[in-house]
Amino acid sequence: MSTKISSWPAATPMWVDLGVDHLAEAKAFYAELFGWEFVSGGKEAGDYTLAYVRGRAVAGIGPKQEAGMPTVWTTYLASDDVDLTAKKISAAGGQLLAPPFDVMESGRMALALDSVGAVFGVWQAGAHIGAERVNEHGALCWNELHTREYSTARSFYSEVFDVSYQDVTEEGLVYSTVRRPLDGREVGGMHHDTALPDDAPNHWMTWFASDYVEGTATRAVELGATLLGPVEESAMGRMVVVRAPQGEVFGVIDAPRISE
């Protein structure tokens, strides 16, 4: 299933957005790379813009809220009660960067640091449910936390979102999938990433699906992006990691991962 018309179950990574210095350039890059079309919320919404694939929202892009902020894709996790989730974040050792607030009629959100310093958002749906199309070319297909403090991170998300984990057995890899409480479905991942550079924070990684990973990688380079490694096979599918022209890093993979 690739479309969604109702709210995502709690604990599901269900939206990503990007703050950039040059909005027009970012829109041009992703339009060429994934075929995204855009609808702006206008000045009232701070020029926050929704990206669409075949008429369904897949991501958000807008100007940075403050100069000097890093250019990164932010992952949002669904919540049935963002105010309660915010209290759990603080109790579990996280920190609220933006306490819960209403986003017009779209929904209610908070922005936080988890207990290992990774930024993530929490979204309680109103008119906007998050991603309406997943698991197909140009749409969100997987989100995973890269962390040096694997056990601490797992404890945090268990406390806050009541998730459980399924360990992935593969030589040289310490990884687990994240299972949401509603039905035990695997909706995200957690990677004990010992190769993180010293100056790189623990972070959530966004993955977009591609029908042809090699072609997407080649086009990204033509558009001014950098590949952080060659296209390669993995247990999850053919994949590559891209740094876009304004610095944000994301993955491209040919295997759909999110299900309803």
Question: In short, what is this structure?
Answer:
By secondary structure, the chain is an alpha+beta fold. It is 17% helix and 39% strand.
Overall description:
The chain has 260 residues and is an alpha+beta fold. Helices cover 17% and strands 39% of the residues. It has four helices and 16 strands. It has helices at 23-34, 82-91, 150-161, 213-222; strands at residues 13-20, 37-40, 49-53, 56-63, 73-78, 95-103, 107-113, 119-125, 140-147, 164-170, 173-179, 186-192, 203-209, 226-227, 239-243, 249-253. The strands form two sheets. It has an eight-stranded mixed sheet, with helices on one face. A hairpin with a 3-residue loop joins strand 6 and strand 7 (107-113). The longest helix is centred in the first third of the chain and has 12 residues, at 23-34. The protein is globular, with a radius of gyration of 17 Å. The mean pLDDT is 94.
